[in-house]
Amino acid sequence: MPASTRHHRALAVFIYCLGILAAVPALPGPAAAQPPVAAQPPVARPPAPAAAATAPAGQPSAEPSAGPDRPSAPPALPVPTRAAVPPPKPPVTVQVASENTAAPKYRIQVRNDGNRPISTTVRQELPPGTSATSITDGGRPSHHGGTAGTEVTWDLRLPARSTTTLRTELSAPAGAPLTAPACAFAADGERPYDCATATWQSGSTPAAAEPEPPLWQRPAALLTGFGGLAALAVGGWWTWQRRRRPTQVPLPDPESRGSIYPRPAAPTAPARRRRPSTWLLIPVAAVVLVGTGGAAAWTATRKAAAVDTDSNPSSGAWIGTAAAGAVGEPLREAAFEFTVYRISCQRASAAHTCAATVGVHNRTPEQQSWHGQLQRAYLADGNFVNTDEPATRRVNQGRDVFAKPLAGGSRMVLPLVFRVPGQQPPTQLELRSGVFSAGVRVDVP
Description:
By secondary structure, the chain is α+β, with helices and mostly antiparallel strands. It is built from 5 helices and 20 strands.
């Protein structure tokens, strides 16, 4: 028998044996191996549930096939993850608008969308260095907390389905834009219903355009100029060398004089192609390299000088661009848009307790999570503290605002509490949506 035939038969026998071994576990056990069972009267089996009878074709039934001592089978389809639910709309909403006047004026509209009257406290934060010259409907100016912040306060009783309009006028230097946010709080004065902000711009003073830098301060222009000069120098030298080269005319052969059939001219060697001198290429290359390096160094120096050395909390972030601003300015980072509407600090024996009214707007279509340990209050010496989560939960009526993600496109306004040790209040707040987010920074007035 040839060797190839023997190998084929051995392989076939091996595969046949594997098939038998695979089929043995599926066969029922012998009847003799089972213990004898005494005859019992037939017991009526309960009918199968209707859900199993109506299972769609192509899907396994949800009824477990195992006995009572075995765990039930997993569901046929995986249970989808529950999407984040947007926060409910507050019963009281606020809108703030600035008027186009010579002096800063603001219009605050407070609306009660509920079916019953609501008592609320409206507070408008005034920019630093300003004061209120005109207040409508019984508002009063006051200082809040241990900071130098000034605000205007109204105690209102809003009828059901009504809108109340409040107006303020400020005295401030003309020309500078002023941002004055306003919030409506519950009767306890700590839980905000809603907040809004507006920035007043002087209509008579147009925004000054940033002057364009001169030509010698533009890296692209310098690099283009150096390259053009180098190309012109090389082209001019090469043209001068070509014109300077004499034209060689072949001399007649003296033996071919007077002959009718002159001898063919002897083949001449091809003219050697002249190349640019090395002593010229080296200076041109050096000029180009020096110009490129100088432009790159100048650009890097300008960018390094533009970096704020005091913004070290967000200097190492990976995603997005860090944003900084004042109270009332919407600041966008990687996923969230943060707006700090109000900061109030109360001094205790050896610490400050600061409550910040913060608006969080998820600008992405996906739900986003955020954490209390990423929200910080910085001191003047660079130290920071995280959110006091027990105190934050207490002012939010026992609700953990960091437990659930924020739905895509939704917005909420909530207070964050920071406990800062020492005699000085914080100088800056830093808010982030994620660990690798650049975050935003808000100066404490």
